[in-house]
Amino acid sequence: MQTKFIMLGIESSCDETAAAIVCDDKTILANNVASQMDMHAEYGGVVPEVAARAHLDVIDQVINVALEDAGLSIAEIDGVAATGGPGLIGGVLVGTVTAKAIAAARCIPYFAVNHLEGHALSGRLTDEVSFPYLLLLVSGGHTQLLAVHGPGQYERYGTTMDDAAGEAFDKGAKIMGLGYPGGPAIERCARDGDPKAVQLPRPLRGAAHCHFSFSGLKTAFAQRHAQLEGVSNAVADLAASLQAAIADCLADRTKQAMQQFAANYGESTLVIAGGVAANAAIFTQLEREALKAGFRLSVPPGYLCTDNAAMIAWAALERREVPHALDFEPLPRWPLDPDATPPPGQGVRR
Ligand code: KG4
Ligand code: ZN
Fold first, then answer.
1. For residue 180, which atom of ligand 1 is closest to its CA?
2. Using CB atoms within 10 A of its CB, is residue 257 exposed (0-12), middle (13-18) or buried (19+)?
3. 98 lines ligand 1 (CB under 6 A)
4. Residues 298 and 128: beta-carbon distance below 8 Å
């Protein structure tokens, strides 16, 4: 009988310190996430210095709890992976140094995982998704459409020209005083609101390319918010209208990308990954759009959409033939498709 390969994954690139243990047969033995959200909530966003110190304080304990949950000792781990970028460099360093120390002490392979690849391949951990597929990656820092041909093989169709979709949620929530992170807060509030109540723009709707823009939406939202101050049910209506506008933009640009993908490779699967993929209204709208385009929609369960270490362990398992040397240097910027064409009017932004 073939023995399983057991991977320890570590994630620390933003405001979650996470450790997970995943086998190459896709069994998730442990998935432990310690969130720093409360520490950053009072600032309305993640403070890098606070985040790095907090990762350092808890990382050993987070790994120990994951091992306990899995019923394993560190001696039973076959490989160790940590996010090597992109992200807040202080946090990435904490995870990287920890993973390298474990790998060196145990003489097991070390893997530096691109955080974006963690999100990109997460759909394959809980679902049968074969290459190539179209990926809508929507997180706090990134909004991208990519054709995924395999681990390390990405063809970017579009990216944001300014803010990410998650940032639009976070900034909208900040304007309304709903706290951080904004996405879940807006989604909760939107349940009692009318998505058509407040008129908001849909930037780039119908454009022939697959890029996104959310900064004009944010400015318009701030103006409407100021106009509606004190009006009854304004917060719920504003939340519902903002969520609908973001969902419309994502659906419209993804529709364009599905056409482009289908023309090249035929209809396939549309995978949505990243924190914003946890939003039910966005899921519903993209499901409708995917159906129309002849694509199957696959969205990982919520606990794999937001930042977690199971996706990091899994991305390393997908490439376990090629471990990294222990002198790997963390990368604050690490594009999935380094050769991508920048959006119109932009230089090298990825
Ligand atoms: O992937 P993620 O956990 O971290 C990054 O890599 O950025 O994504 C975090 C983002 C935040 O902007 C958060 O507001 C958003 O995902 N988010 C949501 C929801 N849950 C998290 N946005 C909309 N609806 C949600 N339910
Ligand atoms: Zn992420």
1. 14
2. buried
3. no
4. no
Ligand 2 centroid–CA 86 distance in Å is 9
pLDDT tens readout for residues 41-73: 777 778 888 888 989 999 999 999 999 999 999
Break the chain into its structural domains and give their ranges. Answer: 6-121+304-318, 132-299
> Same CATH topology for 6-121+304-318 and 132-299?
yes
Which class would CATH give 6-121+304-318?
A: alpha beta
Q: How far, in Å, from the CA of 169 to the mean position of ligand 1?
A: 8
């990519």: which residue's tokens?
Answer: 146
DSSP codes of every residue in 66-79: HHHHHT--GGG--E
* pLDDT tens-place string over residues 292-329: 999 999 999 999 999 999 999 999 999 999 999 999 99
Q: How far is CA 248 from CA 155, 274, 283, 297, in A?
A: 24, 18, 11, 17
Q: How far is the CA of 104 from the centre of ligand 2 (A)?
A: 27
CATH topology of domain 132-299: Nucleotidyltransferase; domain 5 (3.30.420)
Q: Classify residue 205 by its DSSP letter.
A: T
Residue 279: CB within 6 Å of ligand 1? yes
For residues 349 and 141, the answer to whether their CB atoms sit within 8 Å is no
Q: Which of 35, 189, 276, 334 to mutate to test the pocket of ligand 1 (most atoms within 8 A of CB)?
A: 276
Measured in degrees and rounded to the nearest 5, phi and psi for residue 6 equal -110, 120
